[in-house]
């Protein structure tokens, strides 16, 4: 392209009926460079926090397998990636000067010849989203750990997963994955993350609670050393410590390690053990058996079972059955479909434990219910049912 002269630029301005006095004196003359295909360029719109991450030399990772929607992860957050189209063509001009820079540099040449290196009609937009962590439990549950003597473990054909494997397979940031491993009480065995088989976990917990009972230790001060000493001949010491970490809070007193046992979590585990073999359980009978089954000095309460079991008040007599939040779908609409399939009308108190984990940042359970359910009054109580017919 021939270089334009100032006279040609002024003549063009006059034809376009533009007043040069209202414009900056510098003029960009654009031409397409030989490599201006633009196809290999992707634009990503970043919020200031993510820009700072990159500027500090940290990396952002795109995660997802072939059949999954891509997400972008920083060290501790996860973002959905969506393509946003623009009505204006976006041009990439190396060394392009903004109006602010031109104002600051009044002596700059009045005609700047710039070559366009590429262009784009869209860009990637990021939206903070919940990490997709359901798959983490699913992968680890393929092959739960049944203890050192398990024949199944030696012959297992299932994959085992290191931290590195999980980072490649789970659509969440490293911090979110490591936090979730803690939440689901996973433990590292020979470098691989494992979840304990529930029966094996109960066997370990039973050893510990029986020892606490026989030694008459207060539940708030269970000594690690004595537990390892007494139970080390029955089970691997790291498993004893893992169960204490799962069901207690570790602290140091006078140089010795103790655990304060979580009463609610132990009561909940015992309830799961009692309920998992019954389809439905008469509520009053269950409450009696449950209280008798927990360690001495612990008190069972139905609110310990939020997100684990559901009471059916409409049946006579009232019953209770196992319904675990982690077994429900991760997608919002699918989750509500599944819940309305189990029960047609829900009170807010009953449904909350089963949708609480779907709340995005600053979102309330009320907002979710407004979007996915409709409310009505039943015998003076507000209940929610599906917005769409459930097949």
Automatic annotation (TrEMBL):
Q: Name one GO cellular component term.
A: chromatin
Q: Say if the entry is tagged with keyword Acetylation.
A: no
Q: A GO term (biological process) for this protein?
A: maintenance of mitotic sister chromatid cohesion
Name the keywords, alphabetized: DNA replication
Q: Does the keyword Ribonucleoprotein apply?
A: no
Entry-linked InterPro entries: Dcc1
Record family assignment? Belongs to the DCC1 family.
The protein's name in its UniProt record: Sister chromatid cohesion protein DCC1
The taxonomy runs: Eukaryota, Metazoa, Chordata, Craniata, Vertebrata
Instruction: Identify the coding gene.
Output: Dscc1
């Amino acid at each position: 392209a021939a270089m334009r002269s100032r006279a040609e630029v002024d003549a063009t301005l006059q034809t376009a009926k533009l007043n040069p006095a209202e414009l900056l004196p510098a003029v960009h003359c654009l031409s397409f460079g030989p490599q201006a295909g633009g196809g290999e360029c992707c634009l990503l719109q970043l919020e200031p926090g993510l820009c700072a991450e990159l500027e500090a030399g940290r990396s952002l990772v795109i995660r997802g397998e072939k059949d999954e929607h891509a997400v972008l992860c920083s060290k501790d957050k996860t973002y959905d990636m969506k393509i946003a189209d623009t009505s204006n063509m976006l041009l990439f001009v190396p060394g392009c000067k903004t109006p602010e820079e031109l104002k600051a540099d009044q002596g700059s040449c009045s005609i700047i010849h710039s070559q366009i290196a590429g262009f784009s009609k869209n860009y990637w937009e990021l939206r903070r989203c919940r990490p997709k962590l359901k798959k983490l439990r699913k992968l680890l549950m393929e092959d739960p750990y049944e203890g050192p003597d398990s024949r199944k473990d030696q012959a297992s054909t299932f994959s085992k997963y290191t931290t590195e494997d999980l980072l490649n397979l789970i659509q969440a940031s490293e911090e979110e994955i490591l936090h979730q491993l803690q939440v689901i009480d996973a433990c590292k065995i020979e470098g691989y993350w494992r979840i304990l088989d529930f029966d094996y976990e109960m066997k370990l917990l039973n050893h510990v609670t029986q020892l606490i009972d026989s030694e008459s230790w207060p539940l708030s001060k269970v000594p690690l050393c004595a537990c390892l000493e007494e139970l080390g001949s029955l089970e691997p010491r790291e498993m004893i410590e893992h169960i204490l970490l799962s069901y207690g809070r570790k602290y140091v007193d006078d140089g010795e390690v103790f655990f304060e046992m979580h009463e609610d979590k132990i009561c909940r585990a015992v309830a799961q053990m009692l309920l998992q073999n019954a389809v439905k359980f008469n509520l009053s009978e269950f409450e009696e058996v449950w209280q008798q089954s927990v360690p001495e000095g612990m008190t069972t309460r139905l609110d310990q079972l939020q997100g684990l079991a559901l009471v059916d008040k409409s049946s006579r007599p009232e019953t209770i059955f196992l319904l675990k939040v982690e077994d429900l779908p991760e997608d919002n609409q699918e989750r509500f479909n599944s819940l309305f399939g189990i029960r047609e009308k829900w009170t807010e108190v009953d449904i909350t434990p089963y949708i609480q984990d779907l709340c995005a940042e600053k979102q309330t359970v009320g907002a979710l219910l407004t979007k996915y359910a409709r409310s009505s009054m039943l015998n003076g109580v507000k209940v929610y049912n599906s917005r769409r017919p459930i097949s």
